[in-house]
Amino acid sequence: MFCQDGFEVAGVESVSCGDSTTQGSYIGSWSDDLGTCLRLTGNFFMRNDNPNNWHYVDITHVSGDTYKWTNRAGVSWTLTKTTASMLDDQLEVGTDCPYHNNGHTMMKYMNGGEYVLGPWNEKYYRELNVLGKYFMRNDNPNNWHYVEITHVSGDNYRWTNKAGRSWSLTKTAASLMEEQLDVGSDCPYFSTHKVLKFMNNWEYMLGPSNEKYYREDWS
Questions:
Q1: What is the mean predicted confidence (pLDDT) over 77-105?
Q2: Of 95, 126, 157, which residue sits at a domain end?
Q3: How far from 155 is each of 98, 149, 214, CA to CA, in Å?
Q4: Euclidean distance between CA atoms 37 and 20, whole angstroms
Q5: Three-class secondary structure assignment of the chain
Q6: pLDDT tens digit string along 152-170?
Q7: What is the pLDDT of the chain when averaged over all its residues?
Q8: Percent residues over pLDDT 90 in the chain
């Protein structure tokens, strides 16, 4: 088994590998445990103004030392972990990759796994790590200060506070580039609060009136 409980990694909410599911946070770095599949898997996005289905990628663990790159266009290829490749924080690209003959023989993880270098050395960033519970730190908290961000379906998310008020959040290509979600018009603060921005490697988010909501498990 390649997952190690408690390992923190850039941009990963959770990953299932073998018979365990491990939770991770955005904050993380490479360690001596270079075989941990938690670091190697996840959803990635190539930031640009005109994205297509080749720019959204899922790196998954197949078995043993074998991984797979799959994009939304349905094209996939093999990635392999070797002792030599992991010393340089990278995976070997299989000959089934359409870019292998163009020199894309290694896929490298950069900046502690924040992004990978795909074909033509284009940067694919881990998608937003937004799910979880948040708390607005203050001396007199109320139920509006305890918030949970949940995934509804597809690119749709939801802000819900302990007071029972909620509103929609949407992920778009443009919002991904700025590490934020678009706020829906059902938000009572929509006139002044149109984007929910995540700050400092997703340590906290800027809610209505730019108030800081920090990641905290308040349950």
A1: 91
A2: 126
A3: 29, 13, 23
A4: 11
A5: CCCCCCCCCCCCCEEEECCEEEECCCCCCCCCCCCCHHHHCEEEECCCCCCCHHHEEEEEEEECCEEEEEECCCCEEEEECCHHHHHCCEEEECCCCCCHHHCCCEEEEECCCCEEECHHHCEEEECCCCCEEEECCCCCCCHHHEEEEEEEECCEEEEEECCCCEEEEECCHHHHHCCEEEECCCCCCCCCCCEEEEECCCCEEECHHHCEEEECCCC
A6: 877 889 999 999 999 999 9
A7: 81
A8: 49
> What's the pLDDT band for 195 if we cut at 50, 70, 90?
very high
Residue 7 lies in a domain: no
Do residues 187 and 171 touch, judged by C-beta distance below 8 A?
A: no
CA of 40: how far to CAs of 58, 74, 83, 106, 212, in Å? Answer: 10, 20, 14, 14, 31
| pTM, rounded to two decimals | 0.56
CA distance 43 to 110: 15
Q: What is the pLDDT of residue 26?
A: 29
CATH of the domain at 47: 2.40.128
Question: Do 71 and 142 lie in a common domain?
Answer: no
Whether residues 104 and 177 fall in one domain: no
